[in-house]
Amino acid sequence: MQYTSNQDKSSEGEEKICEICKLKYSFESFCEHCVRKVLVMIFPRYLPRDVDDSTKNEYNNIAYMAPEIIFGGQRTPESDIYSFGMLLLEISSGKIPYHGYVHNSDLKVKVFSGMRPKILLEDHLEYHELINQCLDAIPSKRPILATVFEKLKIDEKDVYVNSQSLQSSSHTTISENGFKGLPEPKNATPEEQEEFHKELFKLNEDKVDPNLHPDDQDELEIPEQGN
After folding, report:
1. Where are the domains of the chain?
2. Record's Pfam families (predicted)?
3. Which of 8, 128, 151, 185 satisfies CB 3.0 to 4.6 Å to 16 for a cystine?
4. 17 phi and psi, to 5 degrees?
């Protein structure tokens, strides 16, 4: 069963209830409660407290992996920003990224070639651009965490992120293991993206499903923040 988008259809001024966490939210396009929980979950290395190692591998799903780590690269602050961008897209649209594709080598090649799900935020260009930047194939072109906080109007204290840890980790290099003989990840052209979006639409229209998540994870599951 798919969950619905957390974007409320009510008119301006009325209460908005997130369909994912069922809490009231105030952002124009995103539920800030879900965003904060995702930030805590996906950036465990930057938390000023001990985090269970299992949390670090919470999102090892191809749909959320940065292209540079799909074929063996190391996790970096930049790859975390990519994963967060994909989760932000999921929160804003209410749809699982690459819905209709199974997790196989074909999807890996699609991601590596710059194919991204369509961002359905035409009415909120600032958020649209933020997600687009987070999903850039070139790690150095992705925004830093401080910029993400600023764009989303989130105080980093709200997610217990240690900005000094982020700065000290920013020099982490990407391993070349698994990249031999492969070209560098690239951004797709607008024309290529359009064709890919048509392909995704056709897959879903024909109900060629297999869910990207296991059967027991059809809905977006954001774990509760630890004590």
Report:
1. 32-217
2. PK_Tyr_Ser-Thr (PF07714)
3. 8
4. -115, 125
